[in-house]
Description:
By secondary structure, the protein is mostly beta strands. It has a domain at 1-126: Leucine-rich repeat, LRR (right-handed beta-alpha superhelix). The chain is built from two helices and 32 strands. It has helices at 90-93, 406-409, and strands at 21-23, 31-32, 45-47, 58-59, 75-77, 101-103, 124-126, 148-150, 157-158, 172-174, 179-182, 196-198, 203-206, 220-222, 227-230, 244-246, 251-254, 268-270, 275-278, 292-294, 299-303, 316-318, 323-328, 341-343, 347-352, 366-368, 372-373, 390-392, 399-401, 415-417, 422-424, 442-443.
Amino acid sequence: MNNFSGQNIPDIFGSFKYLEYLDLSYSGFGGVVPPHLGNLSRLQYLNLNVGDRYDVLLMARDNLRWVSLLSSLKHLDLSGITIGKHIDWFHPVNMLPSLLTLILTRCDINIPSIKSFNFTSLNSLDLYRNNISSAIPVWLSNLTSLVYLRLKENNFHGRIPNSIGNLSSLSIISLSYNQLSGPIPPSLGGLSSLRGLYLYENQLSGSIPASLGQLSNLQELHLENNELNGSIPQSTGQLTRLQVLWLAGNQLSGSIPASLGQLSNLQWLNLESNQLSGSIPESIGQLTRLQKLWLSGNQLSRNIPASLGQLSNLQALFLWGTQLSGVISEIHFSKLNNLRGLSLSENPLITLNVSPHWIPPFQLKYFSAFSCNIGPQFPSLIRNSTHLQHLTLSNASIRDNIPEWFESISSHLFYLDLSDNEISGNLPRIRNRSPDPISGILII
């Protein structure tokens, strides 16, 4: 965390023969990593992470043989150093039998297909964003001490090996932003220590294995933006420690299982842009810690359950583009004290029926209700929202005067759409609060 403005790492560091800890990360060193660092035979921790500095270039020259001389090394981080796909990084690292942590992110390296290796004690492997184009190597499944595995943002393709399920110590596995295809291996359900499973932005297909319900320690499950189909397994309700469930952007069908109401620690639930049908289960109202709920872009029908009004920690509720019907009244909002974002758009079968004198318990910053039937009055749902920034009420069946209280909520608006209604009266003067006069409020 210094700034040496692209200077070379001094060769003198290679003469500190008793040194055990060397951290030069985020310091703006440039040039070539000095091979003299290989003289530090007692070194246990080496961190040369370039960080997010784009004004300097630190690179390896010809080879990394000097790494193999660091016989005591336990932690190695060369992130951001330009190693290149032509340099063999694996064999020098493979000669470090005590290595516990290996971090080679953004190094533009390849990954070899080998059958034997020495660093069996490795518990953390991070190869994030290296543009590696290959199948996931089978030898990874033999690193049985691994606790953390991140292969995110590469070009890994083919299937996730079933043998990954042998890594019983895994706590975090991140394979997102690759080109992985085929089914999710049911063997992942045997990873009893797993806390985070990140498989989003791939081409995975098939159904979600019911065996994932066995991951009793799981806190985050991200499977969004794949090609998964079938129903959401009932066994998902067994993940009682789950805090984040993100299944958006797939082809999931069937109903939302009532068992999701058992996820007492859930904070974020995103099921949008699937083909889910049926009703929103009443059990959703049991998720007392829920902060954000996305159900948009599905084929949900029937009434919105009144139990949603019990979610006192809910901050965002997005229901646009479904086939929900029925009346929304004050009871649906009774305890939503923390609600900040609400979208009911493109639900023409929903009717809003709240008293014009009702004062909501929340202050919205975002409200979208275009192509809805929330009129004929101007919605009192927003009358308490003095920090409202985005308001879309186009084609909302409103036949009313702009109320006096509208001026009190307009001072923070940067987007306002009241088109295709029968609204009369004077629009209050709306100030441009942006320091940039070009990016002021957009009124439609």
